[in-house]
Amino acid sequence: TGYAFAAAGVKVVLLEAEQLGRGNSGSASGWMADDPGVAFVDLEKTIGLGGARGVWRAFRRAALDFAALLRRLDVKCHLEARPAMDVAVTREQAMRLEREHKARRASGVDAPLLNARAIRGEVALDGSAALRGNGSTIDPYRACLGLAAAAAARGAVLFERSPARKITFTRKAVQVFTAGGSIRADRVVIATGMPTPLFKSLVRHFWFRSTYLTLTEPVPAKIRQCLGRRATVVRDYAEPRHLARWLGDDRLLVSGADREAPQPRLRDKVIVQRTGQLMYELSTLYPDISGLQPAYGWSADYVRSANGLPCIGPHRNYPHHLFVFGDCSPSVTGAYLASRVLLRQHFEEMDPGDAVFGFHR
């Protein structure tokens, strides 16, 4: 978002509470998906056929444009185009996938369906059906730093370890206070992903959740040969869903086991438990990895809105503010999409399709 505004000629001051890339940006899975992470059939029920189709197309365009931006800026973040496969491995999952496939096809959204033989040949899973997707993978930490550097090169001023302590506003301007001083601006963009203590009145719009990620030790070559093609990103239709992808050093990264965000005092204990759970659940998909040990486990907090889409734009209770909260997808695509929507909001050049992301929906 900082880069998007700076590249558009806006004078940007970016305040980071800790260090750039050390929060949820750096702890993400690094998957750049071409979908919003919410089932089309569910979106159609909540925002209608036209709205769901528009959201799907917006995310597909954002995934392509985000990858193109990283290439154009020559950000060194291990960007690679990757196919994806949403696999149904149980009868219940197959029924959900079938409903999803029918809804997408009826709406004109591309939804290539794969059979059991194709699934087995590509990702070595005993699935009954799968939907094909596309996207890219990145190192999210390196991407964050690269975009921050690009923003700085275009005039943005960055301050780390500078949390906002208070924000006040008048009819014409907004003032942000930190421990070291204050900044007066025409607008403030809150791109924290979830409501902070400064915006307690917005908490009611969201459910606070945590997702968990586990990185395995390097997988021995003999086992790797049994796990299918390493280029494909695999997602299942379990609830909550899992995502698994290979990293360049022969390790598997798996995410999932989402739950209500735990109390801070229980956080470390829950991470240990969920790390073990993810390794077990991965072994149910790929029995050959049984006994493989996790190298690292961590969590990433997020908030979810009622329909699963992020809330992007202004809120009537906060003049001169723009927000982006509630991207619950395991993908980083929503961050790029939000930057474009926020930029249009700032210049008052809104696209009709942006309305589905508003707080008023």
Question: What's the name of the CATH homologous superfamily of one domain?
Answer: D-Amino Acid Oxidase, subunit A, domain 2
Largest sheet: 9 strands, mixed
Q: Strand pairing plus helix content: what structural class?
A: alpha+beta
What global shape is seen? globular
Strand content: 25-35%
DSSP summary, beta strand count: 17
H/E series: HEEHEHEHEHEEEEEEHEEEHEEEH
- Look up the CATH topology of one domain: D-Amino Acid Oxidase, Chain A, domain 2
CATH C-level name of one domain: Alpha Beta
End-to-end Cα distance: 23 Å
What radius of gyration results from the CA coordinates? 21 Å
Spans of 5+ residues with little confidence (pLDDT < 50)?
A: none
Give the CATH architecture of one domain: 2-Layer Sandwich
Q: Could you estimate the helical fraction of the residues in percent?
A: 25-40%
Number of helices: 8
Q: Tell me, rounded to a whole number, the average pLDDT.
A: 96
Chart the SSEs and their pairings.
Layout lengths: L1 H6 L5 E3 L15 E3 L6 H34 L6 E9 L2 H17 L5 E3 H8 L5 E9 L2 H14 L3 E3 L6 E4 L4 E5 L2 E5 L2 E6 L13 E10 L4 H4 L8 E4 L6 E4 L5 E9 L6 H19 L8 E11 L6 E5 L2 E8 L7 H14 L15
Parallel strand pairs: 1-6, 3-12, 10-17
Antiparallel strand pairs: 2-5, 3-5, 4-5, 7-8, 8-9, 11-14, 11-15, 12-13, 13-14, 16-17
